[in-house]
User: Fold this.
Amino acid sequence: MSDNFPALPYPWQKDQWQSFNKHIDDNQLAHALMLAGPAGIGKRHLANALAQRLLCQTPQQGAACGKCHSCGLLRAQTHPDLKYLQPEEPGKAIKIDAVRELTRALGTTAQQSGYKVVIIEPAEAMNTNSANALLKTLEEPAEDTLLILVSHTPSAVLPTIRSRCQIRSLPMPRKAVVLDWLSPLVTSSGIAPEPLLEMARGAPLNALALLEGDTLEQRQQMEKNFIQLCDNKTTAIALAGEWQKGDVTATLEWLLIWVYDLARWQAGAEVSTFKPLPDHLRHQLSKIPGALLHRYLEKLLTVKAQWLSGANPNKQLLLEELLLDWGVLLRQAQKVA
Ligand SMILES: [Zn+2]
Assistant:
């Protein structure tokens, strides 16, 4: 739990928070909640805040007090009645043994004579066996037990699990609310909050994460190089040579976002990425046929999947092919223009 203690809901989570508190006060909190929504919006943070609120012995104004014995244990991450169920490594499955251990622990009484809370994240990391091992606990919940399932892709969670949870949908928060929150946090970086948030596709925590390390710098460099390619100031082969020295996964992800943004921009969305470009480039990009752009996006997705699976390990060739193909699109645009 790296968040400040006690965790308080983010501004865009106020409604959910009020509803949680009302359910707690009315003694109507569900036994299993699924916090569902896109990554980077603070679902896990909300789960932590709720867990702390429930385990605190003397909550103040609907949040953990931060001072009681229970809060001390929570702060030290040693509270015996708060458990996490996660993959051992990011991207891996949650193992059935871990689920069994957890269900055993839930069968005993709470050590601090209150609630027992489990945070499962991401819920979609449970494979069929793990999910089945959890089913009984969901079907016959013990008294004063709360399971919080955090999911970025609820459709990937076994329907039998999903149907036994109260689903709380957390959509991408509204831009204005996020900007109010983000602006003071980025002041010292000298980076404007709006393009940063756009780069993070609206996800507030992802926007903040972009400021860490040299992620932002790398992306700006990629963009600069790619614009040079669009403007015939470099070649596909040269750029592929440059890009293959770096993080290819990050490059493919960046390119996907850029091309996707271009498609959105062509469809009339306001995208700040294209505002600072010279007119002739903007004109050319606007003329790339939409159908080709979508085919290119599909190709990017395929190439990324191949790259991640190790099926296409030659970085230089992979990038060259993508960039040469991009050149074809640009020439199509010139014809149309
Ligand atoms: Zn407390």
Remarks:
- Residues 213-336 form a domain with the Zinc Finger, Delta Prime; domain 3 fold (CATH 1.20.272).
- The chain has two domains: 11-169, 213-336.
